[in-house]
Amino acid sequence: MKVDVPAPNDKSKIPLPTLSQINADRITLLATQYWSPQPKDNHLPYDAAIVESIYQAEILGSNFSVRRIMMLEFSQYLENYFWPHYETGKASHAHMMSIIVMNNEKFRERVPAWQALLKKPDDFPGFFEQVLHASVAEDHLSNNMREQTNLLLFLNHCFGSMEVQLCRDQVKRLVSLSMWISLQEGR
Q: Residue 77: left if φ>0, alpha if ψ -120 to 50, beta else—which one?
């Protein structure tokens, strides 16, 4: 008896970029200058304006295009540039949102998302506080619905990652004891 196996459904009809397109991309050029692990010896010094520019042009300007975010992910932007240079109290809204968007992309791709943030655990409490303030802010910086969605998605990932000490330490401050007692034994 012969069973027909359906062909895999190609969900993505968008053609993948070629190697020459990737090499000519603005993100690749910036990565080579500032954070790429290959030519590590001759990087330009950290520039907060680069983070702002990338957020405005590549994330916000592209309306949170998955393709642009994936280009940033491939260039190791989170691990090598903006999380190592995150400073509590000094980071801009764009810097914080870039970290959130990149972390959410890692969750979407089912990649271990907390690895980069675990490298600087002392900065996570301040970062988490900044995220909480941004998620309830009524100012002009976070009026974008996609930004609000990403903020809530990030917080959801934090609450869903109680096995990660970094998240658990921040989230447990927000949950009352009666809620913890109500959890099932297995959870």
A: alpha
How do residues 48-79 score in pLDDT, each as one tens digit? Answer: 999 999 999 999 889 888 888 888 888 888 88
Q: Tokens in use for 118?
A: 């675990």
> In sequence order, what are the residues at sequence separation of 6 or more whose Cβ sits closer than 8 angstroms to the Cβ of residue 164?
114, 118
Whole-number Å distance between alpha carbons of 71 and 75 = 6
Rounded to two decimals, the pTM is 0.80
Structure tokens at 117: 């943030």
Tens digits of residue pLDDT in 14-23:
566 677 777 7
Pairwise CA distance, residues 43 & 29, whole Å = 12
Distance CA 161, CA 112 (A): 11
